[in-house]
Specification:
The structure is a single chain. By secondary structure, this protein is of the alpha/beta class. It folds into two domains: 11-148 and 300-350, Medium-chain alcohol dehydrogenases, catalytic domain (Quinone Oxidoreductase, Chain A, domain 1, Alpha-Beta Complex); 151-295, NAD(P)-binding Rossmann-like Domain (Rossmann fold), CATH 3.40.50. Helices cover 29% and strands 26% of the residues. The chain contains 13 helices and 15 strands. It has helices spanning 23-26, 54-62, 91-96, 111-116, 141-144, 149-161, 177-188, 202-206, 223-231, 246-250, 274-281, 302-313, 331-339; strands at 11-17, 27-34, 42-51, 78-86, 104-108, 124-128, 133-134, 168-172, 192-197, 211-216, 236-241, 256-264, 292-295, 322-327, 346-350. The strands form three sheets. Strands 3, 4, 5, 6, 7, 14 and 15 form a seven-stranded mixed beta sheet that branches. α6 (149-161) packs across α12 (302-313). The relative contact order is 0.15. The structure holds NADP nicotinamide-adenine-dinucleotide phosphate. Residues 53-55, 149-150, 153, 172-173, 175-179, 196-198, 201, 217, 242-244, 265-266, 268, 296-298, 338, 341-344 line the site of NADP nicotinamide-adenine-dinucleotide phosphate. NADP nicotinamide-adenine-dinucleotide phosphate (NAP) binds next to α2, α6, α7 and β9. It comes from Pseudallescheria apiosperma.
């Protein structure tokens, strides 16, 4: 049964992007935004936690706030919270996925919501029921909020990488939100991981599964030179770049098998066209790298979210490392931490008081 309308507040706290810029200039906490009503096949969620993603910062800085369909955009993509009401045509889809009013769910908003600025950093949000998953049984609500963009990106990468048991996989940026998922799921699928991170994060990534070797990119700079020296006798089957190091691809011929693939998750529209042109169009006879290359762009979906939750329920992913947790009113500090690019796993904002 739906929560009685009179049990819900009429207004809520929500962060908005007042103008484009870095977090301290862009973000405002508004105390009296009307609580939305779920229409159609949407659910109203009382948000417990939001995890932050680098894309939030890109949208905050780059998508104009003056667009008529994007007034007072709300930042944030991921969430975990409780369904408090269902729209008039949401019940059947909710039942299909075994959730109802009172279920604790997690997800990441679809691209359409990003476009119109309907983000998650608010006390209540409405989202299509289809994008939701029940949160994993044995994961905290805070950690479950971290399964969205980072987890779904790992699922997208895995579908492209098609890692076979015994294959050797290099993960660059292994200690970040996406990298920490990849370390676990690649090893769970039988892959042998070499993780690239700074020395201070070696312990973290080693705990995330059967990571065979850790390369400290600070100690071994430039890292492509180190990889050529150490791995040309035993090159990788798959390289996954979660940092966007163009040289890592340009120089990979010695350390990526001729049959291997280089997957880059940094270098889409937000990074300009150079990596894409160099990786996919630059002919080999003009010095292009003779290795397969793909830039991946996530379109968040319920199917990917439920796949990631299943990984957790099946024990393939056992940990969602939390770098730090901030109170709702400290979201600017949380985004400033994210901006340092030093997060060890996920940065979380606790929304519900
Ligand atoms: N294509 C898509 O659809 C998609 C989806 C999700 C994310 N992304 C992008 O993928 C990237 C990673 O996302 P994320 O959520 O994992 O970011 P994140 O959590 O902010 O990544 C932070 C991590 O990156 C590591 N790092 C920073 N510079 C490094 C370097 N030069 N070499 C190795 N590691 C380095 C840091 O480790 P140290 O402190 O040890 O340096 C830190 O642990 C971002 O650029 C994001 O925008 C793209």
């Amino acid at each position: 049964m739906d929560t009685p309308a009179n049990a819900l507040p009429s207004t809520m706290r929500s962060w908005i992007v007042g103008k484009n810029g870095p977090p301290a200039d862009a973000l405002q906490l508004v105390p009296d935004v009307p609580v939305p009503t779920p229409q159609g096949a949407n659910a109203l969620i009382k948000v417990a936690y939001v995890s932050l993603n680098p894309a939030d910062l890109q949208f905050m800085k780059k998508i104009p706030t003056l667009l008529p369909f994007r007034r007072r955009p709300v930042p944030g993509l991921d969430f975990c919270g409780e369904i408090v009401a269902l729209g008039p045509s949401a019940t059947a889809t909710a039942a299909t996925h075994k959730f109802e009013v009172g279920s604790v769910v997690c997800g990441a908003i679809p691209a359409g919501s990003v476009a119109v600025g309907v983000g998650t950093l608010a006390e209540y949000i409405t989202v299509p029921v289809e994008i939701l998953s029940l949160k994993p049984d044995d994961l905290s609500d805070a950690a479950s909020s971290g399964l969205g963009i980072a987890g779904q990106t790992a699922a997208l990468v895995m579908s492209e990488a098609n890692v076979q048991p015994g294959q050797r996989v290099l993960i660059n940026g292994a200690s970040g939100g996406v990298g920490t998922f990849l370390c676990q799921i690649v090893t769970a699928r039988g892959g042998v991981v070499t993780a690239v991170c700074s020395g201070s994060n070696a312990g973290l990534v080693r705990k995330l599964g059967a990571v065979e070797q850790v390369v400290d990119y600070i100690l071994n700079s430039p890292v492509y030179y180190h990889l050529e020296t150490e791995y040309s006798d035993n090159p990788f089957d798959v390289i996954i770049d979660c940092v966007g190091n163009q040289f890592l691809y340009d120089m990979c011929e010695p350390y990526l098998k001729p049959t291997g693939i280089f997957l880059n998750i940094v270098g889409g529209a937000t990074e300009g066209v150079v990596p894409w042109v160099k990786g996919t169009l630059w002919p080999k006879f003009l010095g292009g790298t003779p290795r397969r290359y793909k830039i991946l762009a996530l379109m968040p979906s319920g199917n990917l979210q439920r796949e990631v939750v299943q990984w957790v329920n099946d024990g393939l992913v056992q940990d969602v490392p939390i770098d730090s947790q901030f109170a709702m009113e400290d979201a600017i500090k949380a985004y400033e931490k994210l901006e340092t690019k030093r997060a060890k796993g996920k940065i979380i904002v606790k929304v519900a008081s």
